[in-house]
Amino acid sequence: MKFSISKQAFIDGLNLVTRAISTKTTIPILTGLKLDVLQNKVILTGSDADISIETTIKADDPDNMLAVESEGAIVLPARFFSDIVKKLPEKTLTIQTSENFQTEITSGQSSFTINGLDANNYPHLPEVQTNTSINLAADLFKQIISQTVIAVSNQESRPILTGVHFVISGNNLLAVATDSHRLSQRNVTLPDAVASDYDFVIPGKSLSELSKMIDDDQESVSLSVTQNQALFVVGDTLFYSRLLEGKYPDTSRLIPQEHDIELTFDSSDLLASIERASLLSHESRNNVIKLTIKSAEKKATIFGNSPDVGNVEEDLAPSKIEGNDLEISFNPDYMKDALRSFGQTTIKVDFTTALRPFTLMPTENSDSFIQLITPIRTF
Amino acid sequence: MKFSISKQAFIDGLNLVTRAISTKTTIPILTGLKLDVLQNKVILTGSDADISIETTIKADDPDNMLAVESEGAIVLPARFFSDIVKKLPEKTLTIQTSENFQTEITSGQSSFTINGLDANNYPHLPEVQTNTSINLAADLFKQIISQTVIAVSNQESRPILTGVHFVISGNNLLAVATDSHRLSQRNVTLPDAVASDYDFVIPGKSLSELSKMIDDDQESVSLSVTQNQALFVVGDTLFYSRLLEGKYPDTSRLIPQEHDIELTFDSSDLLASIERASLLSHESRNNVIKLTIKSAEKKATIFGNSPDVGNVEEDLAPSKIEGNDLEISFNPDYMKDALRSFGQTTIKVDFTTALRPFTLMPTENSDSFIQLITPIRTF
What we know:
2 copies of one chain form a homodimer. By secondary structure, chain A is an alpha+beta fold. In chain A, about 20% of the residues lie in helices and about 40% in strands. Chain A is built from 6 helices and 26 strands. The first copy, chain A, has a 9-stranded antiparallel sheet with strand order 14-11-12-13-26-25-24-18-22. In chain A, strands 6-2-3-4-17-16-15-10 form an 8-stranded antiparallel sheet. A 5-stranded antiparallel sheet of chain A has the order 5-1-7-8-9. In chain A, a hairpin with a 4-residue loop joins β7 and β8. The longest helix of chain A has 15 residues. Chain A starts with a strand and ends in a 6-residue tail after the last strand. The model of chain A has no long low-confidence stretch (mean pLDDT about 95). At the A-B interface, α2, β9, α5 and β21 of A face α2, β9, α5 and β21 of B. β9 of chain A pairs antiparallel with β21 of chain B, so a sheet runs across the interface.
């Protein structure tokens, strides 16, 4: 195996696949990255068994300056090999393997020889048929991910809740996550109806990594799903994630259909107020802030308190207050996550009673996105 | 005590003095910052007993929007108070103390009440006479600090070596640091001769903090020294550091007066080569790289090696090689620190034998700055 390649193109590829490579794996060969050198392309692969990323650098793009002299495959220590490539002196580099998987990396006057591993021992990637795939607009898909992963559970006691539940039927895509204290649900209308229905749960961690991989110049992401794998195609890069096994709980019944109190806020203003109040609640053992609503006086006030440090009180400025009076307590960090996910917009917050979950929705297109938070009993 | 002030001016002051405040102090009141409110100014003080910083916000600068209603002093929890001020909603804030050192911070609709401490219990800052002070150009002084602190020891076994030794006599300033493996010495001619000679050692940590405080729009720094304290005046801010006790070793005899081999390099090119070689040496137990010089062939080559991972070899491109042949080994990290401190310039590296220290100097004005590195015996 011998080839020359543009340093920058190679670094871009390495940066993509090393996202999937963990130094903490129990399978030693997975700390390496695999290079497959074919006549007109180089394929880079990284995997941690949960996520696998494969990207292709093609000879037909002149920017890649790829010239393959002989084909072959090798597994190289990922972190160390990336560090070397990034420090090379010239704009191109040459990689050549010799006996015993020794690999020589040369660039200008600099010559590295490192020990590789037999690529035949690298695990095979899952096989996913891509003939029935769903196309998603890249920016919308990134938004769906960022709005739902915030509510994913990070506790392994109920593994299914560590993922985001996707239900695709007709031309509707529903994405839901809940850690049982809060829930986030996004509803999207697809441009085309899907041929068959889908119902699957992807680990939140996979989605976060995938999201980082989708940059602004990417227009669309294609998704294919099998029994236990999802495959996302982003440009010349394939992203595989295992699916979570088991049945996701029925979340539709959790969302209240009616409410007694409705407040309307600028999301950024409310976020700033909650952030101030949480400064105090974070100093206290139970991280709770209190909201009181006096509808007749059109007054909504938040309180944060820490016996050791002090307290904070702030009158909010809702553009609308309707309904009963209320005193309700909640975890300000759930509220901050929820508010950040809306961006700068006008939202309505709907309450029932002090012990029932309350919801946040955009005032426009309110069916498309809902955040639900369970209050905390303080009496 | 009651006053109003510009949030931004107050944050700038808080950012300055909180540099000196450690959460790990054994003196509880030093986790706080002291506010002294006088008729026409507010003084902020932070200290960790080694370093103290005091900055003044004056009413006569309209940007500060300072209005003092009543004088007084209070000590407030530094980190927490700073977090609150940074999150306040309006451009100004009001601070008012009441009974039992309770302090109210208001801005817009937001009102915080936090528990303060009696300012009478805050330690007094050292007294330093400033009538005989030395003026130093701010950018030059920052350069002296950055070029010497790299060689300061971080081992408490010989405390004196954790500081930078300053000797000021006539119109010459000499700054030296050594951790006994390497040495860095800077020599500067002052515009004016000093009235009396100075010889003192300032902790490297103090100098690093001080350097961060000096920003680009600062023209000069004034320095006053007593038996055990140094006081730097930077604009409206006073920076106190304790001095290290004891006699600094005589370093002048360590610097070789003659050499047998001389190489000239572009400092950035040599740095890049050393960085590549150190990738391998860092993977090995003894962090060493080897340099071989063959003067007749005009060839200088570096080698890095790690038995587990591989090796690297690179021909350097010195613009001049003169003298004997040599094979010498050294810690590449000392070399990298030294090379970075030169910036991009032409340097000469002078060797004697494989076991004698070698030196790096700029080719121009070579008396002003010298870096010395002790080689490592590998045979």
